[in-house]
Design brief:
Chain lengths: 363, 243
């Protein structure tokens, strides 16, 4: 656990503090994202944790131990650090770069080699990459090496300063996904800095929003930030589309589904048409217990007395409870009936409507 | 003209000119000795403080200005100024005045370039190194020196070549070296000997250049596919003890 208590930093010759009485706790295994406009003290805060910058006042402790009581270089060997510019050593191969901290710690050769290979695999770097120099890598590969190097000695804490700032949006999205995947397995305590609110929402278990002068405006899980911004600054920073952003954080499992325009086998056509009218659709689905048999349009019922025996179409887009409301919205809209069906494996769970989703936006 | 070239070739082919205390072999050895001694001494004095100041990224500008005052005084003048003092102190005629002149010649570029080379190492590398838990000494020996090595080695090479060329002056104050052929040849109006001496100095300067180039290829860390040598100039160079 990392605890910052009333931490203030004033740089020499300045009156306004870069960080102002910041109190913040990061729990073990949690990803905390520091986000805010340029110059709000994100990097300064991060660097105070590994003592690249010393606070003017206040205390920082890790697992209850005040960091100022430790030798800086020993403290830092136990904390992974990824800087925005990556800072790979140009005169060292990828292998040697990754091995930096293990070498400082005096691990033996075989152990280092094993660890390097393990990390190359974890961070999706090919073995053939290990003997290359940083200048021979793409931007995304360099970022991965930077992360692998920070993870090398398996530190419980990882500090990342805009780790994905230097790559294009597509690569960034991929690296973000990889980090989340990595974190699911490794359960590190991560403090990550970014000025991209979408990145913060995507990566953070909790997000700290700072304003210039190092004031903590709000510290909460992303869903809470978006639902209940503490003040105008936070609301502005989240953007006017924060309702929409929130959809990506809510899973279908979190909300109640509706039955949708469905009828059991054997229903007569008049009854089926009444169900359609109730949902304002021109189709109806046939469900036997929790088994979805398919759907048919209004026209397909002409000349029939019951629903049995009509040609049923399968649902092409099938949502699962794990999908987000953002994905549900996308599916519902593109089905042009404003309704999408949700399945758990073969089991039909219910339907989700655009109307239902929009209730989550305005809430 | 043809005759002259023939005479020079003949001079080089005459074994008498190679052996003995005044021969090419011993003159070359003298030349190499004083050049190497001056260059190594200047490097030993210039590099540690330059590296240290470069690491701190402070104080270097002033130091560079001070060191470069030495550059303004011509080598010949230094010899002239040092000669009477050397004699007064009983240090003899030729060696020390020449050494002083060569030392003063070699030091400023080595100091300046080393300081600049270290100070200009990408701050991101230094921050990454420090952030991963390297001590200040380790940052210097494992990151700054290897990264700045091409600049540092180039500085030493440029100085060494200048020193080899200038060591010719030693002959003026009764020290040996290849300059003797030029001075002595001049005294007895033997143009062939003067010319041969010039060739020898030029040849030695070029040889020095080539030797450094070979050293650089072998020992200076690369930043692309690894070359022949596996040993890198890592963790071996003089490092200031601090931090
Ligand atoms: N070494 C320093 N000396 C003086 N002032 C500094 C120093 N480092 C940072 N500052 C100032 O402290 C404030 C916070 O800087 P910091 O680097 O923490 O901002 P940041 O939130 O990381 O910004 P960015 O998003 O641009 O990286 C800024 O006003 C900056 O100018
Ligand atoms: Mg920053």
């Amino acid at each position: 656990m990392i605890e910052l208590t009333e931490v203030t930093k004033r740089f020499g010759g300045t009156t306004a503090p870069a960080v102002d009485r910041l109190t913040l706790t990061v729990a073990d295994g949690e990803v905390v994202v520091l986000v805010g406009p340029s110059g709000c003290g994100k990097t300064t805060t991060l660097k105070m944790i590994n003592r690249l910058i010393e606070p003017t006042s206040g205390t920082i402790s890790i697992d209850g131990v005040d960091v100022t009581g430790l030798e800086p270089h020993e403290l830092r060997r136990g904390i992974g650090y990824v800087i925005q510019q990556i800072g790979l050593f140009p005169h060292r191969t990828v292998r040697e770069n990754i091995a930096t901290v293990p070498r400082l710690l005096g691990w033996d050769r075989a152990r280092i080699e094993r660890r390097v290979r393990e990390l190359a695999e974890t961070t999706d770097l090919g073995d053939d990459m290990l003997d290359r120099y940083p200048s021979e890598l793409s931007g995304g590969q360099r970022q991965r090496v930077g992360v692998a190097r920070a993870l090398a000695a398996d530190p419980p804490i990882l500090l990342m300063d805009e780790p994905f700032g230097a790559v294009d949006p597509i690569v960034r999205a991929k690296l973000q996904d990889e980090l989340l995947e990595l974190q699911r397995r490794l359960r590190k305590t991560i403090v990550l800095v970014t000025h991209d609110i979408d990145e913060a929402i995507k990566l953070g278990d909790r997000v700290a929003i700072l304003s210039v002068g190092g004031h903590l405006e709000q510290y909460a899980p992303p869903e809470e930030l978006l639902r209940a911004p503490a003040n105008d600054f936070v609301a502005d920073f989240l953007g006017s589309d924060r309702g929409i952003k929130r959809l990506s954080l809510i899973r279908i499992a979190d909300i109640d589904l509706e039955p949708g325009p469905v009828v059991p086998p054997g229903t007569d056509v008049d009854r089926a048409r009444a169900v359609m009218a109730g949902y304002d659709t021109d189709w109806v689905a046939v469900v036997d217990g929790d088994r979805m048999l398919g759907w048919v349009t209004n026209d397909g019922l002409d000349g029939r007395s019951t629903i049995d025996g009509v040609d049923l179409e399968p649902f092409v887009t099938r949502l699962t409870p794990n999908n987000t409301l953002e994905e549900a919205l996308d599916a519902a809209i593109s089905s042009h009936t404003a309704i999408a069906a949700v399945f758990d494996g073969e089991r039909f769970l219910g339907m989700i409507t655009v109307e239902r989703i929009s209730r989550e936006i305005v809430r | 003209m043809i005759d002259f070239v023939g005479d020079v070739v003949a001079w080089f082919l005459d074994p008498v000119n190679w052996v003995g205390s005044g021969g090419i072999v011993s003159r070359t050895w003298e030349h190499v000795q004083i050049s190497a001694f001056s260059t190594v001494a200047a490097a030993a004095v210039a590099l540690p403080p330059a590296i240290w100041m470069g690491h701190r990224r402070r104080g270097g500008i002033v130091a560079v200005a001070v060191v470069n005052i030495g550059r303004a005084v011509p080598s010949f003048a230094i010899i002239a100024l040092a000669l009477p003092i050397s004699i007064r102190l009983g240090l003899g005629l030729g060696f020390w005045p020449t050494f002083l002149a060569l030392f003063a010649l070699a030091l400023p570029p080595m100091f300046t370039n080393t300081y600049t080379g270290i100070a200009e190492v990408d701050p991101a590398l230094v921050e990454a190194a420090r952030g991963m838990g390297m001590t200040e000494t380790q940052i210097t020996t494992r990151v700054e020196i290897p990264v700045a090595a091409p600049v540092i080695v180039t500085a030493i090479r440029v100085s060494a070549v200048q020193v080899v060329a200038t060591a010719t002056l030693a002959a003026l104050v009764a020290w040996g070296g290849l300059g003797r052929f030029i001075i002595d040849g001049f005294a007895i109006q033997d143009n062939v000997m003067v010319f041969a001496g010039g060739l020898l100095v030029a040849g030695l300067a070029i040889a020095t250049e080539l030797a450094f180039a070979a050293f650089e290829r072998r020992f200076v860390p690369t930043t692309t596919g690894r070359s022949a040598g596996e040993e890198l100039l890592v963790d071996v160079t003089v490092a200031p003890q601090h931090g």
